[in-house]
């Protein structure tokens, strides 16, 4: 049924580009999820809708329509995408609820469900490009469903992204090198997601920024460590997902017959949902960049392909301080303007733009932090000044100092 009048409820989660809230259809009383972005970001949702509306699978979240509405508090319009409500939240939420590790019986059935979704998508000519725990939702039928098609590529959709995109931690070697992003890349990301379910952690540990992890994935010969407490079947399944050479990696269709998932039974999924039924929470307070989706705006192949060669380029800040890298996750983070080299005046707000990630928006409040801009860093007219080899680099680095020094970063190529 078409949704004409509806009421927005509380926030279910936030991603890097959208806010997702629960909503109620005023006519039928049914609940659904509404994913909203400001109208200036409409393209992101249009892309997602154009792909989702052609799909029909119990293993893929359903699209129920869209509209444009006005926020009466801010007087701003936003685009809304109506989605099937997944009351179990994301797979990442489920792993957290189960104290950081899913039992293997549940890992098997969740893997089977995600694989079923992937077999369907790949058969439809779609590559998801951003498979990870946060983008797999647990539906009211207790099944795992693939969601968030903002990065997806489709043979048939004119709006679909043709760029390399996704989440660095889950990227396959060929994607990290900027070479290609086809169906094998989803299988690699599935392997990483299995590791997430089994360990509660990202597949690569010990990296402090996305560029080093991309470099490592792309140019070193190793694969993520297989958790040694997994069954032999589980390890064998992972070893087939995590083959570095994409043409040798098993396809989703081959993997669905692997003994690890073949023997899975849906009762583990049902039991998990019944035992721990709670409202989903925001995912944004979790480990910052390791789950962050990147959409590389221009010349992505060139950018990523060059990563191996830029290891000496670094903003010349002293690194002897207690730096932490933060991702803005507050409700009031919005950006409209370009910063000046001298930072904000006492009373004005400094607004930042110039991101490699089209989805990232940050607000910096000069009252909150002591701004240390200028000299040798990136902040000149919003343009990169770090001898970065990307001539059109737009990265904005903002160094701030409070009790703990903080570095806000937008974009990433300059970080190496
Ligand atoms: N249909 C839904 N039902 C319940 N919760 C949802 C639904 N869709 C999204 N969410 C919640 O909102 C979060 C953000 O949604 P989503 O990943 O679609 O946003 P995004 O901005 O596209 O994210 P990304 O940072 O991966 O690009 C999810 O991780 C999940 O917790």
UniProtKB/TrEMBL annotation:
InterPro entries: Kinase-like_dom_sf, Plant_MAPKKK, Prot_kinase_dom, Ser/Thr_kinase_AS. The lineage of its organism: Eukaryota, Viridiplantae, Streptophyta, Embryophyta, Tracheophyta. Transmembrane segments: none annotated. Coiled coil: none annotated. This is Protein kinase domain-containing protein. It comes from the Eukaryota. GO terms for molecular function: ATP binding; protein kinase activity. Residues 6-261 form the Protein kinase domain. One of its GO terms (biological process) is signal transduction.
């Amino acid at each position: 049924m078409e949704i004409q009048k509806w009421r927005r409820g509380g926030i279910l989660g936030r991603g890097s580009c959208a806010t997702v809230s629960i909503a109620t259809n005023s006519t039928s009383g049914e609940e659904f999820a509404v994913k909203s972005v400001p109208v200036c970001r409409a393209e992101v949702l249009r892309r997602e809708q154009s792909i989702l509306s052609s799909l029909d699978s119990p293993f893929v979240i359903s699209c129920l329509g869209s509209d444009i509405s006005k926020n009466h508090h801010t007087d701003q319009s936003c685009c809304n995408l109506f989605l099937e409500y997944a009351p179990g939240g994301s797979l990442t939420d489920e792993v957290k609820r189960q104290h950081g590790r899913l039992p293997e019986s549940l890992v098997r059935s969740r893997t089977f469900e995600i694989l079923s979704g992937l077999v369907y998508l790949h058969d439809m000519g779609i590559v998801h490009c951003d498979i990870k725990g946060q983008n797999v939702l647990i539906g009211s039928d207790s099944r795992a469903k693939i969601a968030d098609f903002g990065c997806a590529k489709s043979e048939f959709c004119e709006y679909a992204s043709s760029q390399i995109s996704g989440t660095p931690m889950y990227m396959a070697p060929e994607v990290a090198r900027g070479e290609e992003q086809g169906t094998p890349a989803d299988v690699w990301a599935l392997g990483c997601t299995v590791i997430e379910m089994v360990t509660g952690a990202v597949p690569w540990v010990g990296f402090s920024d996305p560029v080093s992890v991309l470099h490592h994935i792309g140019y070193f010969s190793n694969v993520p460590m297989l958790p040694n407490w997994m069954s032999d079947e589980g390890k064998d399944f992972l070893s087939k997902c995590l083959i570095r050479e994409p043409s040798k990696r098993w396809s989703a269709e081959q993997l669905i017959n692997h003994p690890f998932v073949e023997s899975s039974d849906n009762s583990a999924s049902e039991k998990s949902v019944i035992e721990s039924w709670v409202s989903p929470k925001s995912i944004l307070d979790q480990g910052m960049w390791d789950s962050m989706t990147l959409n590389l705006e221009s010349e992505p192949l060139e950018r990523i392909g060059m990563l191996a060669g830029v290891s000496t380029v670094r903003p010349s800040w002293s690194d002897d301080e207690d730096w932490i890298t933060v991702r803005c996750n507050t409700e009031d983070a919005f950006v409209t303007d370009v910063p000046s080299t001298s930072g904000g005046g006492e009373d004005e707000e400094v607004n930042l733009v110039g991101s490699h990630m089209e989805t990232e928006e940050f607000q910096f409040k000069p009252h909150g932090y002591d701004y240390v801009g200028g000299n040798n860093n990136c902040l000149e007219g919003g343009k990169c000044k770090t001898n970065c080899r990307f001539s059109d680099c737009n990265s904005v680095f903002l160094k701030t100092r409070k009790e703990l020094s903080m570095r806000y970063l937008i974009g990433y190529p300059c970080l190496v």
